[in-house]
Amino acid sequence: MEQRKMGDFGGIIHGGDYNPDQWLDRPEVLEEDLLLMKKANVNCVSLGIFAWCRLEPEEGKYDFDWLEKIIQRLYENGIYTILATPTGAMPQWLTSRYGEVMQVNAYGVRNYAGKRHNYCPSSPVMREKTRQLDTRLAERFGAHPGVIGWHISNEIGGNGGDGACHCDKCQDAFRKWLQDKYGSLEQLNAAWWTSFWSHTYTDWNQINSPSPRGEDLVHGQNLDWRRFVDSQQRDFCREEIKAVRSNSTLPVTTNMMEFFETLNYFKWAQEMDIISWDSYPDWHSGADELQTAASTAVAHSLMRSLKKRPFLLMESTPSVVNWRQINRLKRPGMHELSSLQAIACGSDSVQYFQWRKGRGSSEKYHGAVVDHRNGEDTRVFREVARLGKRLEKIAPRVIGTCNRPRIAMVFDWESWWAVKDARAVDNNLNYQAVFVDFFRPLWEFGVDVDMVDMEGELDAYSVVIAPLNYMYKKGYAEKVRSFVKRGGCYITTCWSGEVDDSDLTFTGAHPLEDVLGIKTEEIDVPDGYCENSVRYQGTDYRITGLCGLVHAKGAEVLAEYQNDFYRGYPALTRNAYGDGESYYIASLNERGFLKAFYGNVLRERGLECGLQVRLTEGVVVNERSRVAKDGEQVERIWFLQNFNREAAVVELQACYENVETGEKVTGRLELPSFTCAVLAEG
Amino acid sequence: MEQRKMGDFGGIIHGGDYNPDQWLDRPEVLEEDLLLMKKANVNCVSLGIFAWCRLEPEEGKYDFDWLEKIIQRLYENGIYTILATPTGAMPQWLTSRYGEVMQVNAYGVRNYAGKRHNYCPSSPVMREKTRQLDTRLAERFGAHPGVIGWHISNEIGGNGGDGACHCDKCQDAFRKWLQDKYGSLEQLNAAWWTSFWSHTYTDWNQINSPSPRGEDLVHGQNLDWRRFVDSQQRDFCREEIKAVRSNSTLPVTTNMMEFFETLNYFKWAQEMDIISWDSYPDWHSGADELQTAASTAVAHSLMRSLKKRPFLLMESTPSVVNWRQINRLKRPGMHELSSLQAIACGSDSVQYFQWRKGRGSSEKYHGAVVDHRNGEDTRVFREVARLGKRLEKIAPRVIGTCNRPRIAMVFDWESWWAVKDARAVDNNLNYQAVFVDFFRPLWEFGVDVDMVDMEGELDAYSVVIAPLNYMYKKGYAEKVRSFVKRGGCYITTCWSGEVDDSDLTFTGAHPLEDVLGIKTEEIDVPDGYCENSVRYQGTDYRITGLCGLVHAKGAEVLAEYQNDFYRGYPALTRNAYGDGESYYIASLNERGFLKAFYGNVLRERGLECGLQVRLTEGVVVNERSRVAKDGEQVERIWFLQNFNREAAVVELQACYENVETGEKVTGRLELPSFTCAVLAEG
Amino acid sequence: MEQRKMGDFGGIIHGGDYNPDQWLDRPEVLEEDLLLMKKANVNCVSLGIFAWCRLEPEEGKYDFDWLEKIIQRLYENGIYTILATPTGAMPQWLTSRYGEVMQVNAYGVRNYAGKRHNYCPSSPVMREKTRQLDTRLAERFGAHPGVIGWHISNEIGGNGGDGACHCDKCQDAFRKWLQDKYGSLEQLNAAWWTSFWSHTYTDWNQINSPSPRGEDLVHGQNLDWRRFVDSQQRDFCREEIKAVRSNSTLPVTTNMMEFFETLNYFKWAQEMDIISWDSYPDWHSGADELQTAASTAVAHSLMRSLKKRPFLLMESTPSVVNWRQINRLKRPGMHELSSLQAIACGSDSVQYFQWRKGRGSSEKYHGAVVDHRNGEDTRVFREVARLGKRLEKIAPRVIGTCNRPRIAMVFDWESWWAVKDARAVDNNLNYQAVFVDFFRPLWEFGVDVDMVDMEGELDAYSVVIAPLNYMYKKGYAEKVRSFVKRGGCYITTCWSGEVDDSDLTFTGAHPLEDVLGIKTEEIDVPDGYCENSVRYQGTDYRITGLCGLVHAKGAEVLAEYQNDFYRGYPALTRNAYGDGESYYIASLNERGFLKAFYGNVLRERGLECGLQVRLTEGVVVNERSRVAKDGEQVERIWFLQNFNREAAVVELQACYENVETGEKVTGRLELPSFTCAVLAEG
Predict the structure, then answer these.
(1) Which residue in A211, A451, B589, C631 has the fewest CB atoms around it within 10 Å?
(2) What is the full DSSP assignment across A382-447?
């Protein structure tokens, strides 16, 4: 077989987490697995996650033979391996001998052994044990032709809390990190506004992590602590990467968890060769599937945006999860649709957790390709196998393509942390939900969107949307100013430009007052007092959350509030600036408002859906395209997805090719419920 | 007076918890108590519960004189004593001197002094102090003619949590218990499936109790810990029993708390001479009284089933409790009705907590026969006194009878623990509520039911019902197979036969596939996605919870799902097997379904209510019968109970005798609200 | 300028908390503050709150110069200073060096540094550091002509919990306090009813504070612990007062927090020269403003009642707070109305938290007179400035007047603690909400009310109302008896006269059975079982909570229950006693009942609103009057407040003077929404 690797696999990866280490005493099960994998059109598995106790059963005594046998057997059968470092869970011999490896929580109490991601990232013991094991793994398997890449640990930071360790070693590391950042206590005191409530530090050793047992109301300190936690976890991961790279040139990834609050994935992306993530949408939970589908699309888009390249869907369930309160079966079709949605948004893989259900412990009822009883004779297995076939068929057209949006949304972890920590008028504010609200209408229009953080490049885009962009980091306002000046369209909202990198409020005018052409004054939450609405182009839209009171200062007023003492105040403004323009949306409104407003912007900027189609509700489109060396698009593929619980009809207004059948399609196209058609230029 | 004892009292016991130790400085109160007890037709009290600080005011200094005086005075007045060991609460001198006697919680933090059942069952100090005191109590009172039995501690395990102590001594005892059970770590690792998440133990000392501070997701470990906690508490209790028996031949009981999760009462029953329990239904809390009444009936039935003999109602309130958020007065009649319900279900007593309200601390407003202010001049006192008279009247007909059901329901503590711990499709699943749902229609039909655990005998019954019978212990499947083969009717549901004794899933077919004639595949919770229903004999019944997708494999399909992709799948199957038959109910449905289904089974098996009556809703019947030495029933008594908030009319279809009036009754019988008629064969 | 001081300021104080210590590095901000204060008609600020780290940056190194400069600059500009001791928050050098200064919580865990009111009131170190700093502050500023009073600490006890420290030093102090109180353990055991659950103490060292980790069900112990916590905090405060008085004759206050459960403000009032408090009503949160306005009025009334003298509104927000989940802007007018409501109820000041929003930490978005961006050009600033002008105008008529009610309500902290701790029929009982329910109808009638505790004087009043007066302290029953005998009208309810000072129930008759003419039996909560109501003068009123079953024993029955087994039982009784009368309200009923009943009592006693007016709903009146040396009222001022969200019209039935315009007003008077008219006898 040819030499393959993650990111250059030559096909769509299909398979998932495989735990033969749970069945080593049942060789017939392992043999059956091989047989079933082939029937399921599986070409790749992830091995070794959580297998530390099998790989190093006693301190310093390594046993890799069983793993090599399995990798080899798989390889001989055409199945590749993504090999994990097993640091997601520590073995008992480690935790019982070295207390320091376990995390201390925010109350100052050290965890007991167990759970996942319970390790202290500052522990020298943990770092050394990890280094030794990872190095040996790389030595042994780094050149095995069946291994295509490294999977560092698993869902890093996912300790069920905030991913932080508050032990003395971490406190010391935090102080060191602060000294490096601020140089002097004077600088730190200013940044943290410590004159408030007599918080002024006069000795570095007085500083500790925020804690509900003491102080957790100093926003600057909270923010720096989150930065430190992210940085320390990243540093630990970097050491793992270094260890595997010491003996291997294979690409490296770690499986991310979409909008995972603890870790700033834009920074993590820089450590990785390829992005991968675990997607577990809660299908069939709402009145319809659209909010779930939109939330999943935004997460896929974030992952693709981290490197602006295809990513890997590293985990997903072929049937149910077991960790929500209610876990419904994926209805027929939904497995294929949701898997193809990942491909549509930029994934080059469909991987599962898990291949086979274990017999014991908490995940024994988590969905799997193979259940406890019925082998290949299940609905789930058949759907997986069928999907595998489809992936094989479309792979030649898909591999090498990517989504290439002209619109970006600003998503920045540090601003997220700050806006969540803020105590202001609406302490129920759900920043992430609002972010999805600002994304969903574009998704409904069939228009792809990238996410950028505040350090990202804006000039590649035509439109940049920054909802609730609370924090403006150093240089951000200048970057936006220049983007608009050169012709860009910048759309932002109330509760933006409030604080700087230290979570200190700006004083004086809004940092983008010139670009936006408005002056901000108060902010309100009308809900519960009196219904209020925004009139835009003759239609009234209900206000659903924050409501900024601003004054036009040069900007054109496009919509106004309809009630209360701020009746007539601007609700939407437009300001021409340089060659571009900016919009300020003063309030959070019901969904229709953004749909109407975005529609106008897309039309003006010529950014409508690339597929010539009249969509119906619940049917959406993503576009992946192939670019020649000269940058010209040489092929475009569309994924037409019907998330409705019934069949839907769309109207194709040009002639296309069905990628899977080769047939030409145009005009009326019926999509059964939960299906996806893959089209190319006809 | 004649020599009496619990279980052979020669009448119905009537009285309750009496705390003269709170009033020793007010002798006039004690004298008034005697007078009022006689007026209230009280013949027995429980003494000494929580009186440790009075019985042993200093370490090793005992003072029993006050107690002897009271027992003697009561005896002289025709009132017998059930004497408690006072270990339910520890004295201050003990807790302040010996820290080890107090429990350590799951977070590793030792409790402070106070509360009840705060003792560590592994503490040598606690065991020794208890042994000394109990031995002396037995020495002094074991032969007193006024004392009729021993009441070991009080509501054992009721520490407001899970009854467990996690101290080092308990951890050691747990490890020892595991060594005895498994012999080797290899066996333990296999049973606990520790290869999952690198949990493998390589040294016994690595093992600890489950803790939210560390690991609590290893189901096998959780299950063994619960078994150990139960076993250790039982061992402590066994030592108390040994101590009192050292000097006394009186029967022993401890007051249980119905479906108390912590303790496996089937095992506890083996330690006791007689079963007793504390019943506190929440009357007047719902739209009607029926769910409360059914839940109470199932609890009484469990208690009777533990020894298949009459039990004692050891505590109940004559008016209100004070520990719910809202505590409503028992309406007129309800006290008599609920007390007679206990008798109807197999109790030979009606005992109260408490005789007299104390003046201080948390139970001062708990209902009592005697309140703070009004002596005998209260509604409550009058109702208690009237009930006492009725009990005296019916006693000669009741004593010696018992309920003798032909139907059993499988209730097994270990399966309960496992099904609660499971993380699967419906993590809101309330096993106990479902169990009551499966009991209630039988109760409405006037058909008594026994509970058996998986170690119990099935062959005495005609029908065995096993809802959500998640765990199949070793030998259980064989027992059921043999039961059906010999002609029994076995009724079970989805979510049964999933795991073995170690909470490891079975692989391959369902363990009773042959008996049930079905193959199981998936399980779903349709709720919230789409309404689904089951059509049975022409009627549609809404599905209310779990919904198994199974395939008939020999069984006859009696009902089918009506919607969703599993429309037409079997919802109820019947399979003939040997001389018997089995039914599989695939989904949890609204109440009417079981009523219809059970009605058919009862008719076919001739198991209808023994009283010839046409019941109306809210009127139920229990039957107690007397059996001659040759096993023949020589007398049957029925308790016809109207739980409606209005009068109800039933139609007697034979002639009966009203046990209390001696009158013949037949045809139309009106029962006022909250009343109970006691009938015998006319 | 003339010499002024708190309580003799010669005008209405207007200003608020000022934190220049957060801006010392920005002198231009401080200069702008001065300018803006003048524009805002501010005449007084509070300085130094939380400034410990600026005043004593290192242990023993004091720096007061910056403060002196600011006080001086303010003084030169006509702005006075209320100077705070900065103990509300401890500096880092203190907490990091002396662990003992931080509180230990009820679980026995010491807090980390941070937050407010985290100090242990028993810590000798904390006391000494405080004494030294306070003494020096008084030395330096005690005679400064710009300083008008001392503001001891800030919101004492407000540690987010119950204000208690459970450290060893506090445990020792508690034991000492108990020894002083009880003399012997025998007395203590009797008072705490420790024979219950074997709680008897045999050594003082066995006693600890109540804890959820151990025992918290001994009501007598809980009550004494609360008394001790209050006493210990008061003792600490007394030492602060002593320190500032060592070098200053200025009056002393501390800012209270209305019905703050931890501290018995009737006792604290005795330590203070003048009462002040912080008021943060949740305007615009309900269907209308009336419940919020009534709750605010009752709190103002409590504060005035503490010394029966005008008090200071020490904090309020000029716009929003930021610590509720949803914080709505004060609508136009509401700031003036709510500020004048404070004046109307007896305040001689309107002070704000805060003058200027800080840039960092948790209160940066708390409302302020000056925001981050717009200086004087905001709606909020303009409203504050306008109010300042109004206050100046009305001051000459207001200063020297006070409200002088003829009706008192009994509010006693110890009874509150006990009734909250009680576990009885309704454990959802919200005592404080019921208290407001009993106040609101009087407020709607335009009738002022004082609050008295059980040690207060009753004879000054015509009517005394004591709802849910659970505890009767020693001497209270006698006091009421004498009050009624002399002609007073005493109104009380069920759930009164239950327990004595030790939270031990009374035995025998209700302590006021003779005065009330009733015998009490049971108590119920009909809600959820059956709707019940009270018929009074032909109208039925729904019962909404507790429902006592009592029997008339001499009293006249004025209303009866309409349903359930207690249909026909007395619901309202009247009993003539001596020259007076008592009313017993047996149940908690919907609002209309009290309105009807109070209306009759007010008419009979001639206690109607002093302003001749026909009010409409939502318009209320308070009256302040000036009394000559001979006790005669020489002037009466009325504050006519419209809390409706629309304009309202009232009918003046005499001629009055508008205090601000000098105009005569009579007949129809329209009040715009959220306005207050100030009238005097015309």
Answers:
(1) C631
(2) HHHHHHHHHHHHHHHHHTT-B---SEEEE--HHHHHHHHH--SSBTT--HHHHHHHHHHHHHHTT-
Question: Residue B559 corresponds to which amino acid?
Answer: A
Q: Which of B155, B240, B336, B581 is catalytic?
A: B155
Token pair 């930490």 is found at: C361
Instruction: Say if CB A385 and CB A4 are below 8 A apart.
Output: no
**CB distance A218–C113 less than 8 Å?**
no
Active site (annotated) includes residue B155: yes
Q: Which residues of A are catalytic?
A: 155, 315
Tell me the pLDDT tens digit for each residue of B310-324: 999 999 999 999 999
Residues of C with CB below 8 A from A546's CB?
none
What's the rounded Cα separation, in Å, for the pair C616 and C637?
A: 20
Question: Which residue of B202, B425, B470, B551 to mutate against A (max A Cβ within 10 Å)?
Answer: B425
Q: Which two tokens stand for residue B368?
A: 């009592």
**What are the tens digits of pLDDT across the range C604-634?**
999 999 999 999 999 999 999 999 988 888 8
Name the nearest CA neighbour of C146 among C268, C242, C15, C22: C15
CA distance to partner chain B, nearest, from residue C567 (Å): 13
What chains are in contact with C, requiring at least 3 Cβ pairs below 8 Å?
A, B
- Residue-wise pLDDT for A569-606, tens only, equals 999 999 999 999 999 999 999 999 999 999 999 999 99
Inter-chain CB pairs, B–C, below 8 Å? 176
Q: What is the pLDDT of residue B422?
A: 97
- In chain A, count H helices and then E strands: 17, 26
Compute CA distances C5 → B287, C77, C82, C354, whole Å: 64, 17, 9, 21
- Tokens representing residue A92 in the block: 């008992």
Shortest distance between the Cα of C556 and any Cα of chain B, in A, equals 21
Query: What length is written for chain A?
Result: 682
Question: A-B interface: how many C-beta pairs under 8 angstroms?
Answer: 175
Which of C166, C185, C193, C197 would you mutate first to test chain B, the one with the most B CBs within 10 A? C197
Task: Give the residue among C132, C122, C136 at the shortest CA–CA distance from C177.
Answer: C122
B498: how many CB neighbours lie within 10 A of its CB?
A: 27
Residue of chain B nearest A49, judged by CA positions: B197
Reduce the DSSP state of residue B479 to 3 states and report it.
helix
Residue B253's alpha-carbon distances to A77, B82, B276, C196, in angstroms, are 66, 10, 6, 22
C86: its two tokens: 């900065």
C315 catalytic, yes or no? yes
What is the token pair recorded at A657?
Answer: 């090719």
- What end-to-end distance do the CA atoms of chain A give, in Å? 34
Three-state DSSP state, C49:
coil
Pairing of strands A252-253, A147-151: parallel
The amino acid sitting at C556 is: E
Q: What is the pLDDT of residues C551-563, one digit of tens each?
A: 999 999 999 999 9
Residues of C whose CB is below 8 A from B643: none
Helix A219-245 vs helix A185-192: angle between axes, to the nearest 10 degrees? 120
Q: Do A205 and C328 touch (CB under 8 A)?
A: no
Q: Count, in order, helices (H) and strands (E) of chain C.
A: 17, 26
Chain C residue with Cα closest to B357: C505
By Cβ distance, the residue of C90, C319, C359 closest to A507 is C359
- Angle, CA C638 vertex, CA C635 and CA C642 arms, to 5°: 170
Rounded to a whole number, what is the distance in Å from the CA of B508 to chain A's nearest CA? 4
- Please report which confidence band the pLDDT of residue A2 belongs to, taking 50, 70 and 90 as the band edges: low
Q: What is the Cα–Cα distance from A125 to A119, expressed in whole angstroms?
A: 10
Q: In chain B, which residues have pLDDT < 50?
A: none
Judge contact between B402 and B303, C-beta under 8 A.
no
pLDDT at residue B159, rounded to an integer: 77
| Out of A523-527, A659-663, A673-677, least confident range | A523-527
Which segments in chain C show pLDDT lower than 50?
none
Distance CA C174, CA B55 (A): 29
